[in-house]
Write a structure and sequence with these properties.
Elements (H helix, E strand, L loop, with lengths): L1 H18 L26 H7 L11 E12 L1 E3 L13 H4 L3 E2 L7 E2 L16 H7 L23 E3 L2 E15 L4 E16 L3 E2 H4 L25 H16 L2 H8 L6 E6 L2 E8 L2 E3 L21 E13 L22 E12 L4 E11 L2 E8 L11 E8 L3 E14 L2 E12 L3 E4 L8 H5 L4 E15 L2 E14 L1 E2 L2 E10 L1
Helix pairs in contact: 4-6
Length: 497
């Protein structure tokens, strides 16, 4: 029996390590939304395990649990797809590891890039872009020649210091239908804001255009070199770009139908409806049926613990506010209107005399939907902002997650704490045009839709009574790719009956 049990544990551990799956979210800014400060693997089972271990004489039915929480999260920086740091715009080494401004995680806004590519059928380029495209570089080439794009992302590029802030209230309601079957409902309302201080013109702030040779680097010519860019010509080209593109950016965006005002929205978040199964197995306890056929020579030789495997099937109802594509800094309050389904598998090991450890892995699949008026690139060199929009069929990539947690229940009097490591990975989205047009390059947009995040949840909960507790949780960022560096804190009041 001992070998059989060890084989089961090893199999469960191996599966959880290999799946590497995810929580039900598409949002890189709020990748693992918390709805309570309680230990995430409690499943109306905390008091029951304490009672079965003989650590308490008070048996609480734990048939219903309700949590009301307030939360806040904030980010001003992140990492782009290449995890590059904005070393060109920082002055101290300590800032390098912090990544790029939040407005740059999909790439700096390339104003010259708006001149590249073909015009889609039935559309016209913004008047100011048409005027700028007809202007010439020093050797007679027009500004819309893509080989003049600055590969260092300085000339003709904006960097945007963006501040993301999200605050709100969430609830979680759980009820035990049968002995080991639980149904759970989660949702909330949020106040979401994204604001910027300025559009920072890197071509103006980073280049002095003196006789210093460094002032001429970073510009690619038709021949792929920079040797033909004399200082006088660099100054002339720079002034042309600044005057016709950078200084006119607000009017250009207006002509494109793209708003660049601060974004502020209060709306409901998506709703999660979950069905959970879990079951306790007492290990190294000869009185438990799970090991009744094992002959113990020494009951104290092995630590006793409760093994609790669990399965969680969640339906994701996309009632959250969708992103407004006419607003540059708009952000969804949920999963951008996508409904989905999530499956999570895991197990916990609660040792009688010490802590509890838990592993989980899961995958979320979101369903395809049509999005109207999405800005789509028309050239591979376009980043951050695109000149034309069209209707698309949008199919999100799968979101996977893996987590490991440790929990100390009542480690001192009535205070409990837990720590959870999270790895979340969102795959590349699939974007196809509703009406075929060779001018659009949806694959360029697809390349910036994948992201991954590593973070930690650290929680403290204090029991006010056998049926009520208050708690605090901090979701701390560790590392990320293509995502905000989001910090989140939550306070909860929870009742269990």
């Amino acid at each position: 029996m001992k070998k059989k049990f060890l084989s089961i544990v090893f199999l469960l551990f191996a599966v959880s390590q290999s799946i590497k799956a995810a929580p039900p979210t598409l949002a890189q800014n709020d990748f693992y939304p918390m709805h309570t400060t309680h230990y995430p693997f409690g499943f109306l089972n905390v008091n029951r395990k304490e009672y079965e271990k003989g650590l308490t004489s008070k048996s609480i039915f734990e048939r219903v649990q309700m949590s009301a929480s307030v939360f806040g999260q904030k980010a001003t920086r992140g990492h782009n797809q290449d995890k590059k740091h904005d070393e060109e715009t920082t002055t101290t080494a300590s800032n390098y590891k912090d990544g790029v401004p939040a407005g740059d995680i999909y790439g700096r806004w390339n104003m010259l890039g708006l001149l590249y590519g073909n015009v889609p059928t039935g559309q016209t380029r913004a008047a100011l872009l048409t005027t700028a495209a007809a202007l010439t570089y020093h050797d007679g080439q027009r500004l819309d020649h893509p080989n003049y794009s600055d590969t260092s992302d300085w000339l003709g590029h904006f960097t945007i210091p963006l501040e993301y802030r999200k605050m709100g209230a969430r609830f979680q309601f759980s009820t035990r239908l049968f002995n080991d079957v639980i149904i759970q409902l989660e949702g909330g309302i949020t106040d979401l804001k994204q604001s910027y201080s300025t559009f920072t013109d890197l071509g103006r702030t980073k280049h002095t255009y003196s006789d210093d040779a460094a002032a001429k680097t970073g510009y690619s010519s038709v021949t792929g070199t920079t040797t033909d860019l004399t200082n006088a010509n660099v100054i002339s080209n720079h002034d042309t770009i600044e005057t016709n593109l950078m200084d006119n950016h607000a009017l250009i965006f207006s002509q494109m139908g793209l708003g660049i005002l601060d974004f502020h929205e209060t709306a409901a978040e998506d709703v999660f409806l979950s069905l959970i199964w879990r079951h306790n197995h007492h290990v190294n306890n000869p009185d438990d049926d799970f090991v009744h056929d094992y002959e113990y020579e020494d009951d104290e030789e092995w630590d006793k613990f409760i093994l609790t495997p669990f399965l969680k099937l969640s339906g994701i109802i996309g009632i959250g506010k969708e992103r407004d594509n006419t607003k540059a800094f708009s952000i969804t309050t949920g999963n951008n209107g996508h409904h989905g389904i999530s499956l999570t598998f895991g197990f916990s090991m609660d040792f009688y005399k010490s802590i509890e450890m838990a592993w989980e892995a899961g995958v979320s699949n979101f369903f395809k939907r049509r999005i109207s008026g999405l800005y789509v690139p028309t050239d591979e060199r376009q980043t951050g902002v695109f000149p034309f929009k069209t209707d698309v069929n949008y199919e999100p990539g799968k979101t996977w997650h893996f987590s490991f947690a440790m929990n100390a229940h009542h480690f001192t009097d009535k205070l409990s704490c837990f720590a959870q490591y999270l790895f979340v990975n969102h795959g590349k989205d699939s974007i196809s045009l509703v009406t075929a047009d060779s001018a659009f390059k949806p694959s360029v947009l697809e390349d910036v839709t994948k992201w991954s995040v590593q973070a930690a949840n650290i929680g403290l909960n204090y029991d006010l009574s056998p049926h009520m507790s208050v708690g605090f949780t901090w979701q701390a960022p560790i590392t990320r790719r293509g995502a905000y560096k989001t910090n989140c804190v939550m306070f909860s009041l929870t009742g269990t009956f």
